[in-house]
Amino acid sequence: MIKIIRSFFPIHLIIGLLKYNLISLFYWSFLFLVVSDSFGSAFGIPLLFFSPEYLGEVSTVSFALLGFAVGGFTMAFNTYSYIKLGPRYPFLATLSRPFFKFCINNALLPTVFIIFYLIRMIDFQLSQEFASVKDVLLYAASFLSGFTAFITLSIFYFFPTTKEKGERPAHEETSSNPIQSVTQSKEKWYDYFRTEKERSYFYIGKRLKIHQSRSTRHLDKSIIEHIFAQNRINASIFEIITIIAFVVSGQFMNLPAFEFPAGMSIVLLLTIIHMLFSALMSWFHRWTYPIIFVSILLMNYLSMNTRFFAYTNYAYGIKYNEKYEKEYSIRSIEKCNENEKAADISSNNIISILENWKKGTGESKPKLVLLTTSGGGSRSALWTLTVLQNCDEQLNDALSIHMNLITGASGGMVGAAYFREIMLRSKNGEIKNRFDQRFKNNLGKDLLNKLSFSASTKDLFYRYQTFDYQGEKYPIDRGYAFEEHLHENTDHLMEHTLGYYQNPEKKALIPMMIFSPTIVNDGRRLLISSQSLQFLTKNSDAPKQVSISYENIDFQTFFEGNSPQNMRFSSVMRASATFPFIMPMMTMPTSPGMQLMDAGIRDNYGSKITLDYMFTLRKWIEQNTSGVIIVEIRDTKRILNEEAYDHISLTDKLTLPFGNMYNNFPRTQDFDQEQIMKIATAGFKFPVDIVTFNLRENKSDRISLSWHLTQQEKNKIKNAFFSEANQNSLKRLEQLLISN
Question: What is the pTM of this model?
Fold first, then answer.
């Protein structure tokens, strides 16, 4: 028994993986970390595997698709392992269907993963999604069916029965170097065979019984060489066909049937990378890493000096011709911000809007409501819409009537924009009940599937498909996929240009919105609105001894010659919600290209813009209002209930200096903004009240930072409004508005 265990082939394959195939183990480790909830839990990555959605619902089909993708990854793992390890075990050549037998014996790691995944998925579905036992069992069966389908397709189609042991291949199938092929190395199996003593192994064979390997010394080496060559050629063909199939399927992502689950897209991306690396290792062996490094340097050079590998993402609607390209430099920023004439026109326009707003309230000195909403993907979008709709419904429209400005970041601004659009259509008679539950249902729909599928199949390679908007052509990428999915989910209500909202804002039919994406080049902010915001960028109020760094740039003024009002409104929202790597940075028509990213990098809560607005317009506010109410809609409470600190371990001491920069990023913004708010409000001659609605109040609460929400997370958002703290905030808001 000890001899069998010591010579058991599956165990030797695991050892072989540790010695010769660490790259595959890295990918498996990633999947194990995700499924164990040890990686990406804050962003909801594990939920994409535990509760995959297809066509808007968790179903047997969605689990079957995920299983199909895991089957593809498993076969990529098997093919690469066979190429790396097969020649080290020449007895495989004596077996019928050697690759098939190899896969069976190499199944230990995939089997452990599948069992572990199913246990975690079943527990999640029963405890978190409250699915019935029957449904959960169907989900598990569907996953296994999808997995088995891909494995079966691969084994019996791409790897047909090879020559039986002892049979000599035809002359034309033999060559002096038969392993040479488009995806194979020059390394020969017998380089190992000549130097290593032949061993006997116990392997899993026919009917899953244990068999002992036979000696290969009596066989013609050309036959053994041919068998390995044939299987490696088939493995290469399998890799090429699979990659092509994935890429081609990405060209049909606009069809609903190709909106595959995001978890499936993640596995597909791993599969493609694994297969590409496998092919490179097969071609170039130890030269693979230097070649990859040189290729990255070459791609970087070409992206800087040519149009190749630029992967430019555009703001749809504005002009990008070289004729309209602006210089982006300190001099051009200074020239724009010191434009006093534009600042005066902008200021007079905002005063006019405020006068219309005041008239619309019907009060002599109304409360001025300024809304700030935090970033946070779909959770912030749905939470913002939920708070605004519930408050406005219970306060008989008092909130929307007194609201003049909306600022914030990312998902919160998407939810606020949707609320504002519904408000405008309601006033125009297009919507009868603007508090209808269907609007919340729409915003809670998945936004990640199409985006992630595009990232794994289309953005990874050449993007040759284009679409037309406002007479211009733009490449189709994951930025486009996000916007299209958002419009589909929201019934295309926000399918407008930025300029569409200019007149309704001027008439104060709806509050103004200020988007403030971060300029990656230098950390400044681009202030985007349908109105000119030049009045917020001028520095006439700053003391002369204070150094002026021109933090804000007005979009309408700086890009005046690029038709800024024609910018697609969904592109404006996306610019403010471009979370790193999830969506591409947006390149503006400047030289060098101005790169835009998530507004939350600089101000995740919109507080800085709100303070700038109050400071610049402080005289008008003092004379025409009875004070300001800042309504904060936050996805996370400043100090969570039950928050505690752990002891710091040795590894923590190594990782904390880096992890601290990310983990405490929102907290440091809170500290800075609280201090600025305290100093600023103390100098105002009008009262400033702050009313806060928090989504996450307890440390144990968990709603992922993602563009995908599970049903349980949607229920949490719905119920959060009725927490004791949020109900107290509603009462306080009511008192402030009614007492006035």
Answer: 0.84
